[in-house]
Amino acid sequence: MPKLNLSSHDRTSNFNTELCSATLESRLLPNSAPIEQSLTQSPYISAKNLDKRWNVLSDMTQQQHLLDPTTRSLSDAYNKNIEHFIGTVKIPVGVAGPLRINGLHAHGDYLIPLATTEAALVASYNRGAQLITSGGGASAILLNEGVTRTPVFEFHSLTQAGQFVAWVVTQYEQCKKIAESTTAHGQLNDVSVNIEGNRVYLIFEFHTGDASGQNMVTIATNEVFNYICAHSPIKAQEAFLDGNLSGDKKPNTCTLKHVRGKKVSAEINLSKKLVEKYLHTTPEKMVKFGQMTTTGAAISGGIGVNAHYANALAALYTACGQDIACVAESAIGITRMELNTDGGLYACVTLPNIMVGTVGGGTHLPSQKACLEIMGLYGTGKSKALAEVTAGLCLAGELSIVGAFCAGHFSKAHQKLAR
């Protein structure tokens, strides 16, 4: 069917007006005028640096909205998490649950803090959590773990690339020793090879313990990369620490099949009575909705099929000190709903790229640590449980939003809670 662009004239009219204006060239030329507002060059947190920055910013906004007395008193806590610090942004935090998880690592009822400015979001996850808990809880299994960094090497010819690979595959033990010398918790688990013409991509996969692990993996791989560059008998023409095969903070089909971070699957069987009580619709209608929207995802070229994993992940990651940009890969996965043998609803989610940690990163910051503590998931030995809870949360959100669409409540909920 041809696409109709009914408003194409309207979209270009303003641009055409500017294009014809005599001011266009002068506005788009490089501007070498002196900089009027210059902040301190030092990236570090100190009382002196804070005052220098706010001497510039104070005419733009009220300082206490970003740098209130509590934030100033805690500013040293942020030294390893931020540069050019000026304060903190206060994001509302709600709590959803209790969410019952019957997992290999997470086992119990969890109250889950969610940080967001989107009305209706926490209410939706709270409803899904209550439904799951009333149904006996979601079963969840952590299936796999691994965080990658992928150096790339370019050679004069395919022959040289092959010779390089023949050498590098003999270096696994040495690479493992070098990588693990940089970290007390990370382990090099695997190295695989991808050849594209005269270019060789090495995929280094690590286990990162209870840390999310991006920095850990980068530092470890960099040491191995330097060793390879210095000792390879076949010298690369060009080499870079990452060749963009890792899936770091971007969606891709490779990680849908494998793992980046933690791969978790969660499921639940719900009776027809519970679906009608909590979602005001039927299992049959929810299954039909899933079938039709799966087709829509295929037409749109989506990677995986889900309704809104990103909502849960962004809110949870923000509240709990995770790397929020990892929502880009974490939000890839598959939601499936079917009728079970009792006429109820079988629902499952599989997320292969959950990037969470319970140590390191932003998890030690006061507010973020408090949110992890609410779930009982702060500190060593808790990251696998956090991953299973995260999958259960996504399952709760899928059930709630699909139920809302099927019952015709989606728009009404946003009108009621957001306006």
UniProtKB/TrEMBL annotation:
EC number annotated for this UniProt entry: 1.1.1.34
CDD domains referenced in this protein's UniProt entry, alphabetically: HMG-CoA_reductase_classI
One GO term of the biological process aspect: isoprenoid biosynthetic process
InterPro entries found in the cross-reference section: HMG_CoA_Rdtase, HMG_CoA_Rdtase_cat_sf, HMG_CoA_Rdtase_CS, HMG_CoA_Rdtase_eu_arc, HMG_CoA_Rdtase_NAD(P)-bd_sf, HMG_CoA_Rdtase_sub-bd_dom_sf
Domain of life: Bacteria
GO molecular function: hydroxymethylglutaryl-CoA reductase (NADPH) activity
Signal peptide bounds: none
Keyword Nucleotide-binding: no
Keywords per UniProt: NADP, Oxidoreductase, Plasmid
Family the entry assigns: Belongs to the HMG-CoA reductase family.
PANTHER family on file: 3-HYDROXY-3-METHYLGLUTARYL-COENZYME A REDUCTASE
Descriptive protein name: hydroxymethylglutaryl-CoA reductase (NADPH)
Native source species: Vibrio aquimaris
